[in-house]
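Record format v2
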Amino acid sequence: MNAPSPDIPFTAERQRAVVAALRNALPAHCVLYNEEDTRPYECDGLTAYRQLPMVVALPETEAQVIAVLQACRALQVPIVPRGAGTGLSGGAMPIADGIVLSTAKMNRIVAVDANARTAVVQPGVRNLAISDAAAQHGLYYAPDPSSQIACTIAGNVAENSGGVHCLKYGLTVHNVMRVRMVSIDGEIVELGGGALDAPGLDLLAVFIGSEGMLGVVTEVTVKLIPKPPVARVIMASFDDVVRGADAVASVIAAGIIPAGLEMMDRTSARMVEPFCKAGYDTDAEAILLCESDGLAEEVEEEIGRMSAVLKQSGATAIAVSQNEAERMRFWSGRKNAFPAAGRISPDYYCMDGTIPRKRLAEVLLGIAAMETKYDLRCANVFHAGDGNLHPLILFDANLPGQFHRAEQFGEEILALCVEVGGTITGEHGVGIEKIDSMCAQFTVQEVAAFIGVKRAFDTAFLLNPNKAIPTLDRCAAYGKRQTRGGLFKFVKG
Amino acid sequence: MNAPSPDIPFTAERQRAVVAALRNALPAHCVLYNEEDTRPYECDGLTAYRQLPMVVALPETEAQVIAVLQACRALQVPIVPRGAGTGLSGGAMPIADGIVLSTAKMNRIVAVDANARTAVVQPGVRNLAISDAAAQHGLYYAPDPSSQIACTIAGNVAENSGGVHCLKYGLTVHNVMRVRMVSIDGEIVELGGGALDAPGLDLLAVFIGSEGMLGVVTEVTVKLIPKPPVARVIMASFDDVVRGADAVASVIAAGIIPAGLEMMDRTSARMVEPFCKAGYDTDAEAILLCESDGLAEEVEEEIGRMSAVLKQSGATAIAVSQNEAERMRFWSGRKNAFPAAGRISPDYYCMDGTIPRKRLAEVLLGIAAMETKYDLRCANVFHAGDGNLHPLILFDANLPGQFHRAEQFGEEILALCVEVGGTITGEHGVGIEKIDSMCAQFTVQEVAAFIGVKRAFDTAFLLNPNKAIPTLDRCAAYGKRQTRGGLFKFVKG
């Protein structure tokens, strides 16, 4: 939520030394250092913050990853690992005197084992490419972030990515069995494996979501699951957001775990409809998408039960997808909400808070009040089933004061999330964007535990420094601004 | 697999000082130090290894836990946390100059929230007591270790316990949302919370399964799930263990995830049948128990599909439970395999390796060969669905050489597990029993990472020292005995 600290600029001499060392490690075409070549790497999906890296390294093999890390360690050069650069919290934003290590060129599917239901893939394999490769066996890889056409598995591992189906099928951490990575010392380390439980500490779970701070991924084994024979989605309209939010709670309370349970407010529906022609009810105050998948009979039964609950909760209209094309159309609006925001507003700021489901209505009313306070519009899309909000604050950075107001608006939304017992990030990570909010979410002792674990993997603090985990000094400076504690806060006895 | 190193004995003066400090922290009846009082704490379920503790502390409140830890830290006294003492790897075995901290007296169910489907419980609440308390809401707590009548949630958290239904419903780590614990510094720390993904590193996952080395649990929030309306179990006989093992693979390959999938060999069936009257086919070479749960129609469909696969895989007889009483009877034999072993053999040694499912038949044949080699019988029971083996090596410690042969037999089984790509523990933990096998499973670098994480929580190494994670010196000494690498091993590039 705060601009990154100014980085120490590098000297031409330093850059020459680093380029020379990396050219010993990599073919010449894999080392970029001219500004026109490094410019594309100046930001990730969080475009508000930009920084040119000193050098970009694009290894093609694991041996080259090792050589790059050894060279950087010898020269004490910070490394920012980067997947496809679709991240939304600035986790891959460069450091001025550091390198960007992109795993994009390592993009081979190593093996698909239909019997074991696993795929072994290199870090630069795109999320959707895994499912494409598994499709011939009737299998797929479940996590489906909106960026799944572009984002890669190493980035998914770094951010513990979710998607619209994670309520039922889980996040990356629930769908990855093994990660092979290179440590800052240039050692190959394998975490996890085939067994349900691993001896020793669960370092795979720690690694997933560690935002490139613990090592560089070189290979991932993912779980594949059978593609459900049938999937159908209900689109339900509500004339009141609070009623829509309550309907979400009622579906879950009825003992149903939908394959997806998403909500959009009217601003969002009106934003995406001209762009996607998804068939959304643009007069409704809220739209719910509620999916069921499985065997045909199971889906029919569950669609019936969900429809009944939604009607009872006050739905003013209900449509059920009649075929796969219609299902994809119903989803298209939701999945394209971010690009649609980019069409109707010069800039937008995507938030990513999580709240207990039962506080959804209250938070929505709070955000509505903030729209007036900051005089900015906000389109609300949510993974409603798991309480993960994505308010999109619309603004124009060219109009004086709007960027600053958008930032304050965003900060107030996150403070509200923490206040109702939620968290500052659902699935987009902390990156550089929310590093100060970490001081709000956690106490000094817990941040110290994070730092201790980071140190266990990277004593020199060269891997993606100043991301995701704030320093204790930073938290001390954050000091008095600290909001009330949330779910994850230390509580003094 | 090796007897623990001899501990430094304590002096009477040291004991007096520790007792005095603990009496400042606790009511007098909560501090035990006379041998007749401390004797019950000399071992856990791994009865082969015993050690009297210097003092036993039984705090009744979280504030007392804090006071105990502060006192121990000030005096540099090692602490062995203990749940119900049902653990099977010696994780709660005392240290001669240390205290045992039992959480048994903190046994209150704090809250059951039927809407949120959670229960908040104190550490000493028994596993089954949670389900009992949730039953009025039609909910239950899924992990069901065989010791669930006695074992407590803090012990389940420490060992990441599973049970016969974990193939479908997961281990403790998949069913616990939040742990409140006291660190060695006497700080209260909350890990996890209500959200699907937590910002920062996933320290909840690290804590679960950390065998009392990172903190002392004072409260746990568990997930509750709806009790399936119907559950039925198939009992299938096979005239060949390899055929039975292949049938397990075929069920999974057919896309079915049974609620439970257990296998017993003839030695096990003959061992339990006189004791449990479970109706087992004692002429079969292998028996499979294959459960389905859910809605009545789903169960009927799945039982049909599973029966077909089992018949096709060569089952010689198939029975399906016709009512809940019969289902419980079919399970009774499997659930009482360990006590049954205690009835037919003076001593038994329960192993806990995990292997890839497809290597099951091969490992069974290997174990059969070892029975001849070591001239000891072995009863094999497995969580076959998730590849978790529990060979029970039967011996008589009073007959010269048998204990030693049993140990060697066990070590060879684990070496075979690692060799086929498996692990040295499935769900019983490492404790003191398998601490040397950790050196076989992991390389020095990975053990160093474990130690680094341990240090991040417990700089002084006072919490359950010399358990679960070997020291680097220990691994160096283990040295040349190291077997070929398994799934979790560092692989040099």
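The longest strand of chain B covers residues 230-238.
Chain B is about 35% helix and 20% strand.
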